[in-house]
Write a structure and sequence with these properties.
By secondary structure, the chain is of the alpha/beta class. Helices cover about 35% and strands about 20% of the residues. The radius of gyration is 15 Å and the shape is globular.
Length: about 200
């Protein structure tokens, strides 16, 4: 079964509802430019609310390795998603509790993702001027081969309406959704979260 990550949760209540609906992991966003940004106190509350039921992933960008380590320790998150201009060496220094997010629009971008260390790698749509969370999809055929070789997290423009087709096309290890299950930026719609999870399960029937 393809795993499910609901990213950009902004409260303990949202996180708990996503996990109860069937999410395997939830993401908390620390990127300064994001409308879904939370602080360490809110992230810690989300970690406590979820407990051992799901993995909590911190989305970070523009931080030093030492700062990322300190954030992980302060909040209790299980993993870091490096969504900025971090290097392969930065990822290596944080393994096994980290993976790189790579924005994809071409085969060169896919090769950059392939070169990143670690077992996991996330691919997202490349939209100039943003780091992610745009609701835009990309050409999924670019990452089919990568998904066969790595534990690939597929992000970018996924919705309850297209995630079944995305899974059938790419066969990713995990699908990652934020805006596709929201009623407003940072506000998860419980009905759309459930519909997304049901659509993921439908891909395996």
């Amino acid at each position: 079964m393809t795993r499910i990550k609901i990213c950009g949760v902004t409260s303990a209540e949202q996180a708990r509802a996503c996990v109860e609906a069937g999410a395997d992991s939830v993401g908390v966003n620390f990127v300064a430019s994001s409308v879904r940004r939370v602080d360490a106190q809110a992230a810690g509350a989300i970690v406590r609310a979820v407990g051992s039921s799901a993995l909590v992933v911190a989305v970070v960008a523009g931080m030093t390795v030492d700062a990322m380590r300190a954030l992980r320790e302060a909040t209790g998150v299980g993993c870091l998603q490096l969504h900025g201009d971090e290097s392969a060496d930065d990822v290596s220094a944080l393994l096994p509790h980290a993976y790189k997010a790579v924005r994809v629009a071409s085969r060169d971008d896919v090769e950059r993702a392939r070169a990143m260390p670690g077992e996991y790698v996330l691919v997202d749509a490349k939209v100039e001027g943003t780091l992610g969370g745009t609701g835009h999809a990309f050409d999924w055929s670019l990452v089919v081969d990568l998904a066969a070789r790595r534990r690939l997290v597929l992000a970018g423009g996924l919705t309850p309406e297209n995630v079944t087709r995305a899974i059938e096309t790419v066969r990713p290890w995990c699908v990652d959704v934020a805006s596709g299950v929201e009623s407003a930026p940072g506000i998860k719609d419980p009905a759309r979260v459930r519909a997304f999870i049901e659509a993921v399960r439908a891909a395996h029937v």
